[in-house]
Specification:
By secondary structure, the protein is of the alpha/beta class. The chain has one domain. 36% of the residues lie in helices and 16% in strands. It is built from eight helices and five strands. The protein has a five-stranded mixed sheet with strand order 1-2-3-4-5, with helices on both faces. The protein is globular.
Length: 247
Amino acid sequence: MTRFLPGLPADLIETLLRRSPGSEFATGKFDNPDSSAALAVNAFGRFLEHPRDLPPLPGVPMGAPEAVTIEAEMRFPWSGGTHPWLDAAVTTATTLVGIESKRYEPFRPGKKAVFSDACDKRDWGPGLARTNLLRRRLISGEATFRHLDAAQLVKHVYGLRTQGLKRAKGAVLVYLYAEPPLWSSGKPVDPGAITRHRDEITRFAAEVRGDDVVFVSLRWAEVLAQWGSIRSLAPHVKALELRFGAL
């Protein structure tokens, strides 16, 4: 099976993927049947050279897309260290939209919330007061998430805020998640985990609501339904469904 769906700009996609620190190809992660990166790349790769074909995402305050990229780095306001990478980013006249895609990750063992000293000591300003409070609660253990990688999302918020200000645009973080009924092995995904993950998304959204970076959660099924209703995108959706199954 080829890595990319027919008709996608394979050379461009490979170039964009190889610049990121995730080593998706070298580690074999991209070719794993459970790969989340493969889903995001094949889905949004369709719009790299044709960004205006991408409709505004459902419920996302963004406007008409002017540019789409994959494996997008959202640098913090300092040079050293590690910076956030999002699965995709969309730029409009007014808004920078970062997209963090999840497929099976929420149903694997969770990660400990860890922030660098630079991230923790930075004054992120009153526009991120709720996010800052959540960061402190994650560090202390007062706030815990079993399925949602809340620490990663907080870092994405900081990166998007930094780059949005730099580009004089508003910023939106989209959490785009799947709820697959089966693992690629055919084993059922725990329905309880799916429900708990959804509850944690709701809780995270309530924690950061009102901050300058808007948080929007979307299911892959919602996005694909939107794209599938557009005649020019319907074949792309069919190809995605054949490759990745129920989402």
